[in-house]
Amino acid sequence: MDRARPSVLTWFVLGAALLGVSSGGALLQAFDAVPPLLRASWRLQATTVLLLPLALLDWRREGAPWTSAEEARGDAALLVASGVFLALHFGAWTASLDRTTLTHSLLFVTAHPLVVLVGSAVLLALGREIIPPGRRGWAGGLLGLLGASLTLLDVGEATGGQEVTFFGDLLAFLGAVFVVGYLAAGRVLRARWPVFLYAAAVTGLASVLLAAGSGVAEQGAIADHGLVGWTGPTWVVGFLTLAFFAGLVGHTGLNHCLKTMTPLTISITLTMEPVVGSIIGLVAFKTGIPGPATLVGGLVMLAGLLLVVSNPEPDAPDEASLA
């Protein structure tokens, strides 16, 4: 699609959005007194509260995004699928922040381009007609896997009071897998629904699912901290800050930038999240400097991700996969 040339203000918004998105991991890790599933629910509850007024404006301005009962049922099914995957993403990722270092968690949760690459390889092996990743994509995938393997040499090492564990890294990578499912499930809705209406609906649903998951898997968590305990004096400022910067400034800012910037620009910018997020954690929360294997492997991994996301796809539509 044709885009106007990005203004200086748009580049400023992109930088602010990167900072906003990157702050989420450090803040979520800092709130580790709350069990992870409940903490993830609180994060999405707070985001939903901020999104609701904007969603109501979308509804009043544009009305229902479906045009028939059949389309409404289809949208409901897609919304449920998208909400389930978003809940799984945040649940796995937040749990990883309690079981590995911030840098490792951010590296593995942002590895979703590798997940897409592996999925493409599986579909090609099954004989499906898709656009092959190309040499740059395959090279990036191999480089990314090499970098991920190198970072695992630091398993057992502790930085900033947090130890690198294979299980924690696996949880973060599962978060990357689930976010691909979330993006795929919501792709049709994101094309037709106003951004705030879609975001509020799917975020609110995911927060409910995570609260239910906490009630089942985290015995006593809701009794001790409250279903909406983030609204209390101890947590309200922290979780509203998290929702505002990571949710509104971050994701809304990225969606704003897509009006004049290509998805490639956004994707390349987002590969810097592990670097920026680690710096935020180090400066604001003293999370420590990663070990040498993580530093080297992380750089190799990010180089691979850059190759994957910059892989040319001439026949692919010029659309974004951002929620």
Explain what this protein looks like in three dimensions:
The model is unreliable at 314-323 (pLDDT under 50). The two termini are 19 Å apart. By secondary structure, the chain is mainly alpha-helical. It has one domain (8-309). A two-stranded antiparallel ribbon has the order 1-2. The protein contains 13 helices and two strands, in the order ααααααββααααααα. Helices cover 73% and strands 1% of the residues. β1 (158-159) and β2 (162-163) form a beta hairpin.
Please specify the SSE layout and strand pairing.
Elements (H helix, E strand, L loop, with lengths): L7 H23 L5 H27 L6 H29 L4 H8 L2 H14 L8 H18 L6 E2 L2 E2 L2 H27 L2 H23 L3 H5 L10 H22 L5 H8 L2 H13 L6 H18 L14
Helix pairs in contact: 1-10, 1-12, 2-3, 2-8, 2-10, 3-7, 3-8, 4-7, 4-12, 5-6, 6-13
What descriptive keywords fit this protein?
323 residues; two-stranded antiparallel ribbon; 2 strands; disordered C terminus
Q: Summed up, what is this model?
A:
The protein is an all-alpha fold.
Task: Order the strands across the largest sheet as they lie in space.
Answer: 1-2
Oligomer: single chain
Query: Percent of residues in helical segments?
Result: over 70%
Number of helices: 13
Helix-and-strand structural type: mainly alpha
How large, in whole angstroms, is the Cα Rg?
Answer: 19 Å
Poorly predicted parts: 314-323
Number of structural domains: 1
Distance between the termini: 19 Å
Form type: globular
The sequence of SSEs as H and E is HHHHHHEEHHHHHHH
